[in-house]
Amino acid sequence: MNGILTFFGGLVNGLGEVWAHKFRSLLSMAGIILGVAALVAMVGVVQGMIGEVRDYFERTGGITRLMVEPREPPDEQLHIAHLSPGLTFRDVEAIRQGSPLVTWIDPEVSLGWRRYSHAGRNESAPLRGVLPDRREILRLQLREGRFIGDLDIADASPVVVLGSWLGEQFFPDGGAVGERISLHGRQYRIIGVLEPLGGHDAGGWFRWQDRVGYIPVTTGMKRFNGNDRLNSLAVQVADVAFLEDAMEQVRNVLLHTRRGIRDFEVTTMEEQLMEFRRMERSFTFALGGVAGISLLVGGIGIMNVMLAVINERIREIGVRKAVGARGSDIFIQFLAEAVVISVVGGMIGMMASVGLVVMLGEIVEAEQFRIVLSPAAMVAGFLFSVTIGVASGIYPAMRAARLNVIEALRYE
Amino acid sequence: MSLVKSENLTKTYRMGDETVRALDGVSLRIDPGEFVAILGPSGSGKSTLMHILGFMDSPSAGRLRFEGGEVSQIGRARRSWYRANRIGFVFQAFNLLPRLSVTDNVLLPVVYGRSGIRDRKSLARVALERVGMTHRARHLPNQLSGGERQRAAIARALVNSPALVLADEPTGNLDSQNVDRIMALFGELAAEGHTIVVVTHDEHVAGFARRRIRMHDGRITEDSSMDV
Ligand SMILES: Nc1ncnc2c1ncn2[C@@H]1O[C@H](COP(=O)(O)OP(=O)(O)OP(=O)(O)O)[C@@H](O)[C@H]1O
Ligand SMILES: [Mg+2]
Fold first, then answer.
1. What pLDDT score does A199 carry?
2. Mean of the per-residue pLDDT values for chain A?
3. Is the minimum CB–CB distance between A4 and chain B shorter than 8 Å?
4. Is the dihedral of CA A246, A247, A248, A251 positive or negative?
5. Which CATH superfamily hosts domain B4-225?
6. Which of A277, A209, A236 is nearest to A54 (CA)?
7. CB atoms within 10 A of CB A307
8. pLDDT on residue A366
9. Residue ranges of the domains in chain A?
10. Quick one: average pLDDT of A159-163?
């Protein structure tokens, strides 16, 4: 009870001491302040980057996506490898019929960068041939018009859906649907314009996606390539629980269309997920290390200052003891001062961290990623700094408590 | 019953091969209400004796009883309690804490004494009234004259109504006018029943006390009382 009272008295006294030596106190807090600010800023940067990757991962199908990837056939099949037609649109039809566990099929004919022309204006942007399923997987929203439909696929119609960037370039005031745009020397009817993918402060991948224009996959095959080859093929499974079975189904179907030649592989996103987790972990360690070291340095700073403070105040300690202070009273008094320094430092650090995050946000362009101000990191940094401050106050306070009265009184 | 009774108090310090005898068999008795001056040349052991009487130091040998109890039996925390509550110490260098007001300085023994007294302010006022310093209660030590500082320090020594007031050269840093004023104050306090021991090497200062003890080389060479 009395100890608590002494502690509160010590806090008041400590505030007085901090205030009486504003500049020195600020210097002693510098390490803690920078440590907290660095911690919060690093967490913000890493969360921003990881959040971006996680968003990307989820928006591109997440863990329920299966990809069909080309592979060297095994040695015993090398001499018949040419019999396999490779990745073709026939695979899509076969999977649709033979793999009921697959909810969406996502083939793509990549047509590279193309020149889009309308009313004397030219813009370069990627062009891709896809199925209506693409809209579901990427959760594309339309600003106007509609996305590619089954009829467009069946007819291989000359229609195009513009990404939000293209829409903005050619038709800033809207009214694009029904207009014609020239691609690859032919007129395409615009049937829809997309909304931007990731909202307003999204980063790089989403911006990139916003440039893309889409045509029916069959149109891409017929009018551009003249064959039914696909550049990539992926499917979405309804639930992770069916992932293994769906893989098996897709594998069997494809073995059939490939005439038994195993020149492909069905892969999951698991590897990407692991990679992502690894990245997250190594970021966390790097971040923890940097923050830990800077806070440790902050703690050493506080200990250093406390030792100097005690040296300056040996006489005061002697006087207090001479009029009845016990060792524990002196210990509590100086520990309370360390608490005041670290608490005030931690609070200034939290304020500084807001400034730092805002500043970094200005420097790192939104193109790359967004920096998040994490309240949890602020609280953690604060608590950590207080712990460090208290811990580094213990030794100096013990030294003060053990001083001999007479020697302390005689100290000049 | 005596307030303080010592038998053969000895204090030695080892300085390399040499042994310094700061106190060399001091036996004395001080009764309640006495006003004692301890005189002696520099290095004769006056301060050492005061520190031992004031529970700040322990003798190397010999016995010391305070209020009937054996001091060597008292533990560390309890010694602090005695310093706060039963003994008031006045220093040559005043030893006020510069960042505390006069009132807060005076209240230090009350804070550390843990007597549970709620009305601290009036305790401080009573002590400051006694030394004529109520008008400086809110001042900081560096806003006071030397004489005022020593009076504030005496108020601090008196605040818990101690059984014994010890003053080690309390006039050493004062001009002659203030010397007389401070010593007259001690005389009044003694007349009111306080027990006071003042160390000095000034015969004039010692003249204010009723009993004089002379020391030399850690021994008492003379102990005389005069009737007034
Ligand atoms: N910590 C110590 N270590 C060694 N010797 C000491 C110590 N303290 C005191 N002494 C010695 O003990 C002797 C008595 O010292 P003390 O301070 O009691 O003298 P004093 O009578 O108060 O002198 P003064 O009038 O100068 O204040 C001196 O010779 C001093 O050098
Ligand atoms: Mg002395």
1. 47
2. 87
3. no
4. positive
5. P-loop containing nucleotide triphosphate hydrolases (3.40.50.300)
6. A277
7. 15
8. 59
9. 2-57+275-410, 67-268
10. 95
Nearest ligand to residue B39 Cα: 1
For residues A278-282, average pLDDT: 85
For helices A2-20 and A22-59, angle between their N-to-C axes, nearest 10 degrees: 100
Q: Which residues of B touch A2 (CB under 8 A)?
A: 114
Instruction: Verify whether the Cβ–Cβ distance A323 to B51 is below 8 Å.
Output: no
User: Cβ(B45) to ligand 1 under 6 A?
Assistant: yes
Ligand that comes closest to the CA of residue B200: 1
Can you tell me the distance from the alpha carbon of A139 to that of A392, in angstroms, rounded to the nearest whole number? 53
Q: What DSSP state is assigned to residue A299?
A: H
Question: Which residue among B84, B91, B97 sits closest to A324, beta carbon to beta carbon?
Answer: B84
Dihedral sign computed on CA atoms, order A275, A277, A283, A288: negative
| Choice between B115 and A252, residue whose per-residue pLDDT is larger | A252
* Ligand 1 neighbourhood includes B93 CB (under 6 angstroms): no
Tokens of B177: 């006018």
CA distances from B35 to B38, B155, B196 (A): 10, 17, 5
Closest residue of chain A to B54, computed from CA coordinates: A322
Residue-level pLDDT at B45 = 95
Alpha-carbon span B146 to B94, nearest angstrom:
8
User: What are the structure tokens assigned to A38, written together?
Assistant: 């660095």
Q: What is the pLDDT of residues A39-54, one digit of tens each?
A: 888 888 888 877 777 7
User: What spacing in Å lies between the alpha carbon of A262 and ligand 1's midpoint?
Assistant: 100
- Whether B112 sits inside 8 A of A329 (CB atoms) is yes
**What are the E-state strand segments in A2-85?**
65-70
Compute φ and ψ for B90, nearest 5 degrees: -120, 130
Ligand 1 centroid vs B204 CA: distance in angstroms? 23
**What does the pLDDT look like over B159-203, one tens digit per residue?**
999 999 999 999 999 999 999 999 999 999 999 999 999 999 899
Q: How far is CA B14 from CA A206, A322, B8, B49, in A?
A: 82, 24, 19, 17
**Residue where the block lists tokens 């054996």:** B70
Between CA B181 and CA A403 the distance in angstroms is: 35
Whether residues B112 and A324 touch (CB distance < 8 A) is answered with: yes
Flag whether pLDDT at A200 surpasses 50: no
> Given 3-state DSSP classes, what are the helix, strand and coil percentages for chain B, each rounded to the nearest 5?
35, 30, 35
CB atoms within 10 A of CB A38: 21
Q: Which of A232, A250, A229, A220 has the alpha carbon at shortest distance from A108?
A: A232
Single-letter amino acid, residue B18 = E
State mean pLDDT over B21-34: 95
Question: Which of A132, A189, A202 minimizes the C-alpha distance to A162?
Answer: A189
CB of A30 within 8 Å of a chain B CB? The answer is no
> Would you place residue A207 in the very low, low, confident or very high pLDDT band (cuts 50, 70, 90)?
confident
Q: Give me the sign of the Cα torsion angle A280, A284, A290, A294.
A: positive
